[in-house]
Design the sequence.
């Protein structure tokens, strides 16, 4: 099929170059956005008397038919047939309605057309991803509500450190995800400008109304500079950056679930529907979902790096290099959606094992800080209290016991300030309950955090 731009050329495009140049195999996913933009453009052309109302009607009806056939998979979108989705839609339309179809591209270039399609596509996908993140937050909040009093060790350096609750741990991730939602919101806000009407790079001599098309397509305003309109891909980079941070959070939580599932921890057990087995070891129950999320995080990072590298040396305005933006964005979006859609139900069906968490907490001397605080509250300088408690921990290790079970005589041998009430002060439930400072693990404080996150979810949904 002859290319629409073939008038200047004396030869057919080499078959290898045609395949190399074609983007229809991947940009075809934007056909609905392409048609949406064309409908707005046609309406504007008719409104400005650049084309007739009859031509606009034919274009509108024709595009509806093209969209229906694309929805049904009735149009061949192979590289042999079409160069890209923009040409495919226009060529099929022209075949069906004749000269009116040829008038659709008046006052428009593929450059501002593809810039518009990408903005419409990314806007739609951001909204989808936001909804998935909010749903995952709901799952985490529900698990937190169920585990307000589930004591577990908090860790630093992957060493047992201080007592917290499983709810407190989950709310940390809820706050990370809250920031992810706000990053996506920021991306939406900054990309809320319409490039349509920028032309190839220098606008057009036709009396177009860019404000009309911007409003019709749901944008806040037209882009203010035509060069920037076709050359900008900041929003693609910003989206992939936001998705990279989101995947970082999912990967960190995945790593924790992998550890928690192991026999060394056994804090949780995944549902059989979200686990896999081994081809040789019949006892295995593997957290492959979490491991794949860790792996796919690297792919999303790769998309961000690819886009930054792609754009860093491009002069204004459009360059064919920019065709490579799509696959990077598509891959990042696809992988993030896939991870969220499997992670949320996996977490929802996960069984928490509170007794194992509490047992680990008792064996880690994680109430040592509370023991030192007991002394400081009785007037002992913190550094002296710290040293005394360290001595007690060493004694416990020597005797093979814990601070809770260490006889009071051992305490008094280190400091005569110790009384029987020390056992109450270092009880793990008390240790958690007393940590009422803002952001701490005390149940009432975590309940406040939950209420705040629930309010955020309701506001954003």
Sequence:
């Amino acid at each position: 099929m002859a290319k629409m731009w073939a008038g200047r050329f004396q030869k057919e495009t080499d078959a290898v170059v045609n395949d190399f140049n074609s983007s229809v195999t991947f940009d075809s996913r934007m056909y609905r956005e392409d048609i949406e933009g064309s409908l707005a453009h046609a309406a504007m052309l008719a409104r400005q008397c650049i084309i007739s109302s009859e031509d606009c009607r034919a274009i509108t009806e024709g595009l509806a038919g093209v969209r229906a056939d694309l929805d049904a998979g009735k149009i061949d979108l192979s590289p042999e047939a079409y160069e890209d989705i923009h040409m495919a839609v226009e060529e099929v339309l022209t075949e069906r309605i004749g000269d009116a179809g040829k008038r659709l591209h008046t006052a428009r270039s593929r450059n501002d057309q593809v810039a518009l399609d990408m903005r419409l596509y990314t806007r739609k996908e951001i909204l989808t991803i936001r909804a998935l993140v909010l749903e995952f937050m709901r799952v985490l909040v529900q698990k937190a509500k169920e585990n307000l009093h589930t004591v577990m060790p908090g860790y630093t350096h992957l060493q047992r450190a201080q007592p917290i609750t499983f709810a407190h741990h989950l709310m940390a991730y809820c706050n990370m995800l809250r920031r992810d939602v706000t990053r996506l919101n920021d991306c939406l806000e900054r990309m809320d400008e319409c490039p349509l009407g920028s032309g190839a790079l220098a606008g057009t001599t036709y009396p177009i109304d860019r404000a009309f098309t911007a409003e019709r397509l749901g944008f806040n305003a037209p882009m203010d500079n035509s060069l920037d309109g076709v050359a900008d891909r900041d929003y693609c980079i910003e989206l992939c950056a936001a998705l990279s941070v989101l995947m970082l959070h999912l990967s960190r939580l995945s790593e924790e679930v992998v550890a928690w599932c192991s026999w060394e921890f056994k804090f949780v057990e995944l549902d059989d529907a979200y686990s896999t087995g081994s081809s040789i070891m019949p006892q295995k129950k593997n957290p492959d979902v979490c491991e794949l999320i860790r792996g796919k995080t690297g792919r999303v990072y790769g998309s961000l790096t690819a886009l930054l590298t792609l754009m860093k040396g491009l002069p204004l305005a459009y360059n064919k290099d920019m065709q490579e933006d799509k696959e990077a964005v598509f891959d990042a979006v696809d992988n993030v959606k896939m991870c969220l859609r499997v992670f949320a139900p996996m977490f929802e069906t996960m069984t928490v094992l509170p007794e194992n968490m509490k047992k680990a907490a008792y064996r880690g001397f994680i109430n040592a800080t509370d023991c030192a605080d007991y002394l400081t509250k009785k007037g002992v300088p913190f550094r002296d209290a710290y040293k005394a408690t360290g001595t007690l921990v060493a004694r416990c290790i020597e005797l093979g016991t814990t601070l809770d079970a260490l006889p009071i005589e051992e305490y008094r041998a280190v400091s005569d300030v110790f009384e029987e009430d020390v056992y109450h002060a270092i009880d793990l439930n008390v240790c958690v309950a007393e940590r009422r400072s803002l952001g701490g693990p005390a149940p009432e404080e975590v309940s406040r955090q939950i209420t705040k996150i629930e309010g955020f979810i309701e506001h954003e949904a």
Q: What stands out?
A: The beta strands are 151-156, 159-165, 193-194, 221-222, 268-269, 351-352. Residues 245 and 422 are 44 Å apart (CA to CA). The mean pLDDT is 95. The first strand starts at residue 151 and ends at 156.
